[in-house]
Every structure is written in C-alpha cells, then in structure tokens.
Amino acid sequence: MTxxxxxxxxxxxxxxxxxxxxxxxxxxxxxKVMDRVAARRASGxxxxxxxxxxxxxxxxxxxxEAGIAAIRAGHTxxxxxxxxxxxxxxxAAKFRRENRLDVDWRDTLVCSGGKQVIFNALAATLNExxxxxxxxxxxxxxxEIVQLCGARSVIVPCGAQSGFKLxxxxxxxxxxxxxxxxxxxxxxNPSGAVYSRAELQQLAQVLLAHPQxxxxxxxxxxxxxxxxxxxxxxxxxxxxxxxxxxxxxGVSKAYAMTGWRIGFCTGPxxxxxxxxxxxxxxxxxxxxxxxxxxxAALSGPQDFIGHSRTVFQRRRDLVVDxxxxxxxxxxxxxxxxxxAFASCDGLIGKTTREGAYLKDDEAVANALLDxxxxxxxxxxxxxxxxxxxxxxxxxxxxxRHACAAIQNFCRTLVE
Length: 415
Hints:
Elements: E1 4-7, E2 10-13, H1 20-24, H2 29-42, E3 48-49, H3 61-72, H4 85-99, E4 108-111, H5 114-125, E5 131-136, H6 141-148, E6 152-157, H7 168-174, E7 179-185, H8 197-208, E8 214-218, H9 234-237, E9 245-250, E10 263-266, H10 269-280, H11 288-299, H12 303-323, E11 339-343, H13 361-372, E12 374-375, E13 377-378, E14 387-391, H14 396-411
Parallel strand pairs: 3-12, 5-6, 5-7, 7-8, 8-9
Antiparallel strand pairs: 1-2, 4-10, 9-10, 11-14, 13-14
C-alpha cells in the first residue's frame, strides 16, 4: 500500500504537513536575490551584486593564522556549550572596554553567528500570542524568527522623515500587555541609521514604565559608524535596564568573518542560562576552530577596523552622490553600516526601455537585475516599500559601474 492515489489521471502524493509556524514564514529575500545572481552568473551573464550583506575584505591574516594554528594544535573537538572560557573572557573585556558595560565572562554566550543569538533569545522566551515590537525598516530575519517562535511581530513604520528611527511616542503606542520584546538595531540594516545617546534615553524612559518588555540590542554594525559619530548601546545609556537588555554583537562585520559564524551576547544571567540550555539541545556550541579565530580577532590588533571604516565611508559618499544624480531616486547619507537605503518612489509607475512596468519597488529591483545586471534588494522586503537597499561592500570601480548603470536605467524610463 502506498500514500499515492490516482484522481482524474493525476498522481497526488500525501506529503507530511510542515510545522505551522514554519509554513507561515517567508524565505530570506536577500538570499533569494543572491540565488538569482548565482544563476545568472552560471549562465554567463555579467552581474554586479549590491545585494550581499558582508564586507568584501579578506579576514585579517592574524585571525586566519589563529584558525590554522587551532587546527594544527588539535583544537578540533567540542567546546563548552556556552563557548570557550578564553573567548568569553575576551568578549566580556570587549563589552567593558568598548561599551562600558560591567560584564563578567559568565554573563556572555557564544553562538554560531549573530542570527543564532537572536533565535536563541526569542525561542527561549516567547510563547504563542506574545508580541515583539519591530521598527521598520528591519533586517529581513527579525519578523520571520518571531513567526517561527509562534509569536507576532508588531511592525512600527519609521520612514525617512524620522531618519528611519523609532521615536519614543511610536514605541509607547506599540506596546501592549502582550509585548515581550523590542528589537533595536543600530547601526541599522538596511537604512544605516544610528541612534544617538539622547534618542536612546528617550526610548529608555518609555521602557522603564513597561517592566515586562525585554530589549534585544543588535549592535552587529557597531564599528561601522561614520562622520566621527560615537556609538552608544541601550544598556550603557540606561543602566536601570541592564536586567532586561540582551546586547548582541559578533565578528562577522567588524572583522570580515561572516563565514566563520561567530556571534556573541551579554545579558541577564537568567536569560543567558536559558539560551545556553536551548543551544545545548540545538548545535552543542559554535565551531571550536572559529572560536579560536574570534579570540584572536577580539584580542589582537584592531587597526583593521579603522581601515575598513575609512574605506566604507568613502564608498558611502561615492554611492550616495551617484544615486542622487539618478532621476527619480533620492538617498540620504547613512550614518553607519554599509548600506544605502534609497527611495525609488520617482520610478514607480514608469516603464523600462524593455517594456517592464514598475508597479512597486520589487519590480524596480527585478528590472535593474534583468536589464542592467545590477542586483539590489527591494525595500518592501525590509518592511518599508518604495526603496531599494544597495550594499556598497564592493570595490570602487564596480560601484561606479553599477551607479552609472542605475543612472542610465532611470534616464531611459518612460511614463
């Protein structure tokens, strides 16, 4: 006997049902674009990809050597679930030194990338019908992780008029008795927005009045901040929130280590313990080799960070200037990260030279890839339409070619 049956000459297969929270989640929009780029390149097409959210630099040599040395020294077995003690001590020292947080190594956790930090935190604390406040534009995975945990995202639009940042009034309006978390990302992916000390203090005043609300402070782009601005994180600005804030970071963006998969965090001990318990049944901990490399990154020379920041600021200036020369596009200079979140509102409703009608920002991004070979990600994937996200983690020559193609695309549109 089989599970197949014939009906009207068509074979049907009874497939097992997916978990309903997974079934409702959407695939990552950025990875879908990256898949399209790979497919076009495999077919021989030339593509300039401005879609990937990773530095184009190589991992610093001393970090790579630390990974190789770890292999040669036989550090290829399991580590403690929460991470190597030496790395956790270096993480605690980083939080004390750079963020002025009074952190002990026991208050830290090492995960397989920043995404696992977020997943562990939300999965360890959310129940069905809980709510998570997510300012938009947001990183594409935030609402999907909330969905996978059975909870509900409360999306708060934060447009260009607010600098793509959440205001205290908007936060107050979004909080209900079911609110369990606020996710705060600064510098922001996709907008590059950076919260000042004063703006964080205003948000903190609202949060102090709502003791049931935890805060996930995603600081992964902390070191990519421009124009001499100073970085602040919420638990630093308002110590009274320390027992409710999970401060997360990692080595992926600051040290060009995306593929090494090391993220880390600090927060209240009860939450760290719960996340460690979950991780013990999930991955059993991060790669030991990668942990040794991350230790070298955090403890070794830090000149790479200043160099990459200078390069990214120069690229930002180049890209913003060129985008603002494209008819129908507007782009404010982001204060951090390596993304330009450009308005394409002036392009919507027009038709391309090849006859594609631009009904929305996704159509704009698709047409740019199809007709110019420039890959971007549509803003609606980040919760805020009529924009496209451009990652300027690419060499200057390629960026100039991409911007010239975008300008030509915009000039040839017809009403």
